[in-house]
Amino acid sequence: MAYGEKVLDHYENPRNVGSFDNAENIGTGMVGAPACGDVMKLQIKVGDDGVIEDAVFKTYGCGSAIASSSLLTEWVKGKTLEEAQAIKNTEIAEELALPPVKIHCSVLAEDAINAAVTDYRNKNN
Amino acid sequence: MPKDILSSNFFELFELPVSYDVDLNKVQQHYMALQKEVHPDKYTGATDQEKRLSMQQTSWINEAQATLKDPVARATYLLKLKGVDINLENETTMDAGFLMQQLEVRERLENIKQENDPLDSLEQMSKELKSASDDMMKSFAQAYEAGEIDESREWIRKLQFMHKAIKQINTLSADLEDELMG
Question: ipTM surpassing 0.85, yes or no?
Answer without folding.
Answer: no
